[in-house]
Amino acid sequence: MSEKTTRPALFLDRDGVINVDPVEFVTKPEELHLLPCSAEAIARFNALGVPVIVCSNQSGVAKGLYTLEVLEQISERLQQMLSQYGAHIDAFYYCPHDDADGCDCRKPKPGLLLRAAREHAIALEKSVFVGDSWRDIIAGRTAGVKTVLVLSGHVKPEMLDLPEMQNHPPDHIAPDLKGAMEWILHQLNSSE
Ligand SMILES: [Mg+2]
Ligand SMILES: [Zn+2]
User: Fold this and answer.
1) What is the pLDDT of residue 192?
2) Per-residue confidence (pLDDT) for residue 167, from 0 to 100
3) CA–CA separation, 91 vs 55, rounded Å?
């Protein structure tokens, strides 16, 4: 196996990890607001040459709330905002489906991560997925990556006692992406 096929990646959910969780959906670029320090954290991984890949459910497309074209504009807006901090996303993987579509990419299914790993020659067992909901943690575990739950979005501290916590514990819990950074760096280094 070449070196390229064994590199780790940082997979990120979008809403509640990079930008403020909109509760429902981000339906246009203007509704996107960065969480404090998420851009700085991403810039750090960019500087280390770790691919940063977004894996995000966007069932608002299936619901007709916004088109794939608008979703693309939202990604561009996010890149613009990140660029002010010297940060960027290397690739976006979105599931535009809803539960009724029965696709293999809507988290908690691992399809987005598996496809990203295949297309970018990522070693899943060396990689980390950061998300703010149980769907993310289950998708990450199923894909075979290490998982981090951040409390900057969907899951609040008082929700950690719920049965989902016992059934699908993440490998690490942090207040936000910046707070998870040192743990992630340690994982990426120790997997060399
Ligand atoms: Mg989220
Ligand atoms: Zn899907």
Assistant:
1) 55
2) 87
3) 9
Domain count, the chain: 1
Taking a C-beta distance cutoff of 8 angstroms, is the pair 28, 71 a contact? Answer: no
Coil/strand/helix, residue 1: coil
Q: How far is the CA of 114 from the centre of ligand 2 (A)?
A: 12
Rounded to the nearest whole angstrom, what is the distance from the C-alpha of residue 133 to the centroid of ligand 1? 6
pLDDT at 6: 81
What is the CATH number for 91? 3.40.50.1000
pTM (2 d.p.): 0.95
- Domain hosting residue 151, numbered range: 3-190
Instruction: Tell how far the Cα of 97 is from the centroid of ligand 1, in angstroms.
Output: 15
Strand order in the sheet with 91-95: 91-95, 52-57, 10-12, 128-131, 146-150, 172-174
Examine the residue annotation and report whether 15 is marked as an active-site residue of this protein: yes
The C-alpha R_g of the chain, in whole angstroms, comes to 15
Q: Which residues of the chain have pLDDT under 50?
A: 1-2
DSSP string for 89-152: -SEEEEE---GGG--S-STTSSHHHHHHHHHTTB-GGG-EEEESSHHHHHHHHHHT-EEEEESS
Active-site residue flag, 161: no
Tokens 């290397």 correspond to: 90
Q: Which residues of 84-103 are buried (b: 16+ CB within 10 A; e: fewer)?
A: ebebebbebbbbbbbeeeee
Q: Give the model's pLDDT for residue 164.
A: 78
